Each structure stands twice: as C-alpha cells, then as structure tokens.
Amino acid sequence: MQRSGASRFLSAVGLQAVLVCAICVGMAQKAVAEPDRIVAAFYPPLMINASHDKPGSAIEIIREAAHRAGREITIEFLPFQRAMHLVKQGEALMPSLFRNEAREPDFTWVARIDSTRLQFLTLDKPLNSLDQARELPMIGVEAGAATDVFLTSQGFDNIVRLPGPEASAQMLQARRIGAWLLPADLAQDVWDGLGFAEKLHTGASIHEYAIYVVGGLDLPSDTARDYRLALQSMEQDGSLTAILLKYR
C-alpha cells in the first residue's frame, strides 16, 4: 500500500524535527558537561602541582571557589608563557597572576586573593635597594614574568631572562648571576625543592603586587560573577585566609 505525498512529506518533516531535537539536546548536554579549564605554572607556594596532596594555595582556592559556585573544573600545569597565552585567548582561567600596568588591559581581573612583595635573593650580603642591584653584573628573572617587566620598567640592563624559577635558582647557586628577583617565600620553596644547602639572603621589599584570579577579556560575565562571589564568600568566612596560612 503506497503512502500519499502528504504522508511522505509529514514523515520527512517529523524525521527532520527529531534530528534537530537530538542535535540540540546533544549540544545542551555538552555545554552543561564542559568544565572550566584552569591553567597554572609552577610557582610555589601559589601553584605547585595538580595533586590533592599539596597543590599550592592558589590551586586549593580555585578548587574551593569552583565547588561553591557549582562549577566543574580541570587543572593542567604548563610553561608560564603558554598558560598566559591560553588565558589571553579566552581558553582558560589562571588561579594566580601578579597584577601590573603592563598586564592590566589584557585580562579580566576576577578577584584578588593575596598580595606579595618582590625581594632580591643573594648568596652574599642582602640587597636592599634598586641602586645596589644596578651595580651587579647580572640579575636573574623569568622571561616575561612580573619581575622581568618591573626591572625593565626601571631601566635595568643587567638582566638575565630565564625559562623559570628553577633555572634562576640554579644560576644563582652556580654564581653565574649575582641576585635573583622573586617573592622570598616563592624563592625559598624553589631553593629547598632543589636541595640546595646554602643560605639564601633576603633583601628588603622592592615592590608589592596584588595577586588575582584572571580570565581573558572575553570571559563570560556569568563565569566571572560566579567565581567572584564564591571568592568573596571565602574571604568573608575566613577559609581563603586559612588556605593561604597553610603555605606560610
């Protein structure tokens, strides 16, 4: 028995509707299931690794904020410049970044979680001023990091730009540089992790930075809002401070 043209037309329309609905449902499920991508770089005690043992204060903070906001996340560790690029491109968030004028226009500054001070680390006498540092043959910094940006803005030309904090520590230990610029707690964690026995001498504070959770400029407003509110609640109930104190 043959179906009429109208019947065949309705069947085709019905099939098309079913396919469209299936595609829409699939897309909706994918959107719901897609976690927020968190990228980090090795900067103890803020960012150490992706484990649950001692991942770093910023990693613990972003995990708790995501939990309070009802958001799923993935965390991956990458070289610093690669992580920064992904955030700028809107593909990820970073749980810890020093805020400065050079970076200001490139990111959405979601919420402040801490602050830190830059200090010169040496193996001889402490360096307590920029004028003293200018007299050194070479100072180690991570290429493109806040320390590099700061010394460059101050007109320093005796800078060695290195791939990461461990490289700076190794260069200092080998006395191939005269000083290393970094927050003292971060430097000490890296130094101890490399097993160096010599004592680091810490100079006076040279500059202070606020530390933020950041996203790209096109970070969805609801995503920024969710994390900002969660972090505000952590600050209000003391849990943010409690996490920071675990690493000090």
Description:
The chain is an alpha/beta fold and 248 residues long. It has a single domain (35-248), classed as Bacterial extracellular solute-binding protein, family 7 (D-Maltodextrin-Binding Protein, domain 2, 3-Layer(aba) Sandwich). The chain contains nine helices and nine strands. The strands form two sheets. Strands 3, 4, 5, 6, 7, 8 and 9 form a seven-stranded mixed beta sheet that branches. A two-stranded parallel sheet has the order 1-2. Helix 2 (57-69) links the parallel strand 1 (36-40) and strand 2. Residues 9-15 and 17-31 have low confidence and may be disordered.
Notable characteristics:
248 residues, alpha/beta, D-Maltodextrin-Binding Protein, domain 2, seven-stranded mixed beta sheet, two-stranded parallel sheet, 9 helices, 44% helix, 21% strand
CATH architecture: 3-Layer(aba) Sandwich
Multimerization state: single chain
CATH class: Alpha Beta
Helix content: 40-55%
Task: State the fourth-level CATH superfamily.
Answer: Bacterial extracellular solute-binding protein, family 7
Largest sheet: 7 strands, mixed
Number of strands: 9
Number of domains: 1
- Spans of at least 5 consecutive residues whose pLDDT stays below 50 are 9-15, 17-31
Q: How large, in whole angstroms, is the Cα Rg? A: 24 Å
Content-based structural category: alpha/beta
Order of helices and strands: HEHEHEEHEHEHEHEEHH
Strand content: 15-25%
